[in-house]
Amino acid sequence: MGYKSIGRQLQLAREQAGYSQEQLAAKIGCSQSTLSNYEKGKRRIYLAQLAHIAEILGKPIEFFLSSSDFNSSGLYGSSGEKLNVPFTGVGTHCDVNIQSTTVSPDVRVALSMDEQKLLSDYQSLSPEGKRLIIDFVTWLKKREV
Amino acid sequence: MAVVNFNISSEQQLLLEEVNALACGWMAPAAEQSGEAGEKLFFDGLITSLAEHKLLTPTVPQHYGGRGLGYFSTALVLEELGALCTSVATVVTANIHAASPIILAGSTKQKETFLPPLACGKTHLAAFALTEPEAGSDITAIATKAYRKDNQWVINGVKEFVINGGLAHFTTLFATTDAKGKRASLVAIIIPKDINGLKIGAVYDKMGIEYVRTTKLILEDVSVPGELAIGPRGSAYLLLMQTFDRGRALAGAVGVGLARAAYEFALQYSKRRHQFGRPVFTQQAVSFALAELAAKIESARLMVWKACWLIDNDMDYTMASSMAKIAGSQVAQEATAMAMDICGGRGYLKDWPVEKYLRDARVLSLIEGTNNIQKAVIASLL
């Protein structure tokens, strides 16, 4: 049905953000057992609730609808070219197509410190800031070709 | 505090009277026409009257000119329409279905553009396009592709079984941005009427609900502004599931209405028809069957009410909605089959309503996700 994998992603995002089930449940205004059922896929999470959780955990909604390797997603420009930039942004429709690619956890671990710092800084930016970064990287890539 | 109240409010009672008054206005003119011509006149007339009273899409919020009915009140309306004309009830359900993603997650501009026409007093229909030749219940198999070009969505694909196809003011369409059909790549896009590249394919000739125009839609490089995608990026799968979860309770309501109509017809006939010197109803085989049916209809109605109450109160409604859909569709099929048995040979005639009830009932276990899919949904939550 798809909700088990959404639940797994929800658990992953919660753990990455350092929340316990009780802490996140309190933050979103539901019981711990409800959150537990969301994570097990035993209760369907509705869009408004997921959007709220996504905002708290700093993940785009796509993260929860993708497999666990979403963190390795690539960005595609409107002309279809792939941009080799990890993406986590706000969940709004924009001119960039996002497609998940399958990358093993080992590859994620293999990110250098600089890359991890860059990714962490990017994730903490506002939507406008993230857009500027994407535009800048796109411009840099074209300049270096 | 009372959590459950089985009394409908005075406003809801007035709503039912309003719907019945609208139907009554078309009964006499329809009766003057013979057979299908009369049925078609009643269908067209009731659709027009419902539109005038903003009941064709009763869930459109008041802010956008609509009645703003909750799901409980909408279920009451749909039970009544299910009893009067299943085709009309199906059209209303399709309109609600198409508007639901916009109401749930549409932008202010989308709401301001597409909701008011559904409540303007004129017959504006909407359509919901999901099913494809190779994809129905399996959302991940969707092959209709959408890609971005400049600031447009370009869509190519084929959709099947689109209710109100070709008549709709707009179509809420689901496509994928990824050939692999991942859930995250699903996108919900509003397709305005009369847009280049949107072609009407086959108009289906159906066993029942024959006055509901149901077509194939073909999209060849249909290009719509990027702003017509509904909801946050990646949210379309959840939006679709939520639309289904809500719509299923309403399909159950239609089934309850149809079951009620068949049951009432059979009951009246059994009390009027005499065999062996007494009414057929006095035969225990008949009276017990009708008693059991009355209990099942009431049971299905309460399941629909519960599901709709949960929706209106923003509680977990998925399982209740699937159960209500199964109950409503099953009781409709049982009631219509039993009505034919009780009416005997006359029930099989075209100029009696029973055979139409039976044909109309059959679709209810197929639409809004088959009943087997409902069981899969329920099982996944056990």
TrEMBL record, chain A:
<dbReference type="GO" id="GO:0005829">
    <property type="term" value="C:cytosol"/>
</dbReference>
<dbReference type="Pfam" id="PF01381">
    <property type="entry name" value="HTH_3"/>
</dbReference>
<dbReference type="InterPro" id="IPR001387">
    <property type="entry name" value="Cro/C1-type_HTH"/>
</dbReference>
<dbReference type="InterPro" id="IPR010982">
    <property type="entry name" value="Lambda_DNA-bd_dom_sf"/>
</dbReference>
<keyword id="KW-0238">DNA-binding</keyword>
<dbReference type="GO" id="GO:0003677">
    <property type="term" value="F:DNA binding"/>
</dbReference>
<feature type="domain" description="HTH cro/C1-type">
    <location>
        <begin position="10"/>
        <end position="64"/>
    </location>
</feature>
<protein>
    <submittedName>
        <fullName>Helix-turn-helix protein</fullName>
    </submittedName>
</protein>
<dbReference type="GO" id="GO:0003700">
    <property type="term" value="F:DNA-binding transcription factor activity"/>
</dbReference>
<dbReference type="InterPro" id="IPR050807">
    <property type="entry name" value="TransReg_Diox_bact_type"/>
</dbReference>
Automatic annotation (TrEMBL), chain B:
<feature type="domain" description="Acyl-CoA oxidase/dehydrogenase middle">
    <location>
        <begin position="127"/>
        <end position="222"/>
    </location>
</feature>
<dbReference type="InterPro" id="IPR006091">
    <property type="entry name" value="Acyl-CoA_Oxase/DH_mid-dom"/>
</dbReference>
<dbReference type="GO" id="GO:0003995">
    <property type="term" value="F:acyl-CoA dehydrogenase activity"/>
</dbReference>
<keyword id="KW-0274">FAD</keyword>
<keyword id="KW-0285">Flavoprotein</keyword>
<comment type="similarity">
    <text>Belongs to the acyl-CoA dehydrogenase family.</text>
</comment>
<dbReference type="InterPro" id="IPR009075">
    <property type="entry name" value="AcylCo_DH/oxidase_C"/>
</dbReference>
<dbReference type="Pfam" id="PF02770">
    <property type="entry name" value="Acyl-CoA_dh_M"/>
</dbReference>
<keyword id="KW-0560">Oxidoreductase</keyword>
<protein>
    <submittedName>
        <fullName>Butyryl-CoA dehydrogenase/acyl-CoA dehydrogenase</fullName>
    </submittedName>
</protein>
<dbReference type="InterPro" id="IPR009100">
    <property type="entry name" value="AcylCoA_DH/oxidase_NM_dom_sf"/>
</dbReference>
<dbReference type="InterPro" id="IPR036250">
    <property type="entry name" value="AcylCo_DH-like_C"/>
</dbReference>
<dbReference type="InterPro" id="IPR046373">
    <property type="entry name" value="Acyl-CoA_Oxase/DH_mid-dom_sf"/>
</dbReference>
<dbReference type="Pfam" id="PF00441">
    <property type="entry name" value="Acyl-CoA_dh_1"/>
</dbReference>
<dbReference type="InterPro" id="IPR013786">
    <property type="entry name" value="AcylCoA_DH/ox_N"/>
</dbReference>
<feature type="domain" description="Acyl-CoA dehydrogenase/oxidase N-terminal">
    <location>
        <begin position="10"/>
        <end position="121"/>
    </location>
</feature>
<dbReference type="InterPro" id="IPR037069">
    <property type="entry name" value="AcylCoA_DH/ox_N_sf"/>
</dbReference>
<dbReference type="GO" id="GO:0050660">
    <property type="term" value="F:flavin adenine dinucleotide binding"/>
</dbReference>
<feature type="domain" description="Acyl-CoA dehydrogenase/oxidase C-terminal">
    <location>
        <begin position="240"/>
        <end position="379"/>
    </location>
</feature>
<dbReference type="Pfam" id="PF02771">
    <property type="entry name" value="Acyl-CoA_dh_N"/>
</dbReference>
<dbReference type="InterPro" id="IPR006089">
    <property type="entry name" value="Acyl-CoA_DH_CS"/>
</dbReference>
